[in-house]
Specification:
Order of helices and strands: HHHHHHHHHHHHHHHHHH
Protein name: ABC transporter permease
GO molecular function: transmembrane transporter activity
Subcellular location: Cell membrane
Main location: membrane
Distance between the termini: 57 Å
Membrane topology: Multi-pass membrane protein
Structural class: mainly alpha
Radius of gyration: 27 Å
Number of helices: 18
Length: 440
């Protein structure tokens, strides 16, 4: 009985372009990975992917829902409405009129404080609200780009707060510690802020790439380290000034120039944020590096099989994201504040997560979401002054927006929208007849 001969060509299960034996240990690992079944996607990654895949219509409807619920809270807590509700059955129209007056006046004041104040004494005060909105939005846009870029690379960068702080610290030190020509000094301070944030984020990237430590846990811990670090830094002899808790002011040569004269605070940082948003779009959509980052974010195992170094992309994605967040801190120190304080980051790093989700991690959406949150923060002050509506309503609106953005099925249910991929039209009569005949 003769032994069957081996086929001269590759078997159907074998790729003719793939070597029969791996040439190295790394190739063996890749080949082994390619043979294994793809593990099920984790709930967190699948959830973020679903949120980022929502349409702009769903995002707009989520904002509308938040505004409507905010209006309900305004009406319920307004004293005039409560008084009119006491005789609702006698004069229901008075209750409805008081409710409309309370909600409309509150939102009108919010608009006037965020965009244009028609009741201002002069033109300068009338247009100042929109400049304040853009000023507040500048660090939110930069930090939102940071979180969004990491999301698209498959990483949860929850450490924006710490990266903003480290960027602010390094930018402030270069700002008041050196004496350089104007343009060079400013550029060096900005680069220092980016380096500070990139270094702080790269720690989490290296730990994840080398040890598998989850970036969420590491970045949250680094947030706390940075918060206590800046508390100590502002008290050191190198940073401390005559005012307790405030560093020395940065030099004029390192300040971001204003786009408008005093009393406007809008500075060149807003233009920088727009330029970087365009740069992030080009990086993620048009460059080879961006393709690799997106490939790792979509399927790390398939990207490794294709020859992409997942570890290197992880570290690089975190470093780039941290650099953007560091620039957010630098814009606060070099543009808005002019000095370093322990509260320089505020809640920028945490609000950036909401901004990135609201903008679906896309640069244009992040810019618009940052401006929206800047408008809420700027308009809330005037709303409280003119109508007595508590400033906490702004936080409630932001919370409602987060809730609805994070729950797309809830928004679809409220607005009776079809699920993705579901047919929106009824089958034609001919289709129904054919289906009935097939069943018979």
């Amino acid at each position: 009985m003769s032994t069957p001969k081996e086929p001269l060509g590759p078997t159907p299960a074998q790729d003719p372009l793939e070597p029969v034996e791996p040439a190295s240990a790394a190739d063996a690992e890749v080949t082994a990975d390619a043979g294994r079944p793809t593990p099920p996607e984790s709930f967190g990654r699948r959830y973020v992917r679903e949120v980022m895949a929502t349409s702009w219509v769903l995002t707009l409807l989520a904002i509308v829902l938040a505004v409507l619920l905010g209006g309900v809270l305004i009406v319920v807590t307004d004293p005039a409405v409560q008084e009119a509700a006491g005789y609702f059955f006698a004069r229901p129209s008075s209750t409805f009129a008081a409710a409309w007056e309370a909600a409309s006046q509150a939102y009108l004041a919010l608009f006037q404080g965020a965009v244009y104040d028609a009741q201002a004494a002069n033109f300068t005060r009338a247009i100042r609200p929109i400049t304040e909105t853009l000023t507040i939005a500048t660090p939110l846009i930069l930090a939102g780009l940071s979180v969004g870029l990491a999301f698209r690379a498959g990483l949860f960068n929850i450490g924006g707060q710490g990266q903003v702080i480290l960027g602010a610290v390094l930018a402030a030190w270069i700002g008041f510690g050196l004496d350089l020509p104007p343009v060079i000094h400013l550029l060096l301070a900005l680069v220092g802020g980016a380096v500070g944030g990139a270094f702080w984020a790269a720690i989490a990237g290296v730990l994840k790439a080398r040890t598998g430590a989850h970036e969420v846990i590491v970045t949250i811990m680094l947030n706390n380290v940075a918060a206590y670090l800046v508390l100590w830094v502002v008290t050191t002899q190198l940073f401390a000034s005559r005012t307790p808790g405030v560093s020395k002011p940065v030099g004029d040569n390192s300040r971001l120039p204003g786009l408008l004269p005093d009393p406007f605070r809008l500075h060149l940082g807003f233009v920088l944020a727009l330029v970087l948003a365009l740069g992030v779009w080009w990086l993620m959509e048009r460059s080879t590096l961006g393709f690799k980052l997106r490939a790792v974010g979509s399927n790390a195992r398939a990207a490794r099989t294709a020859g992409i170094s997942v570890g290197a992309m992880t570290v690089l994605a975190m470093a780039i994201a941290g650099g953007l967040a560091g620039l957010a801190g630098a814009s606060q120190v070099l543009g808005t504040e002019g000095f370093l304080t322990a509260s320089v980051a505020g809640s920028i790093g945490f609000d950036a997560i909401t901004v990135a989700l609201l903008g679906r991690s896309k640069p244009l959406g992040t810019v618009l979401a940052g401006i929206l949150f800047g408008a809420l923060a700027a308009g809330g002050r005037l709303m409280q002054t003119r109508t007595g509506t508590p400033l906490d309503l702004v936080l409630v609106l932001q919370s409602f927006i987060v809730l609805f953005i994070a729950a797309p099925p809830l928004v679809r249910t409220i607005w009776r929208l079809p699920k993705p991929g579901e047919r929106t039209r009824r089958p034609r009569r001919r289709d129904r007849v054919v289906t009935a005949g097939a069943q018979a």
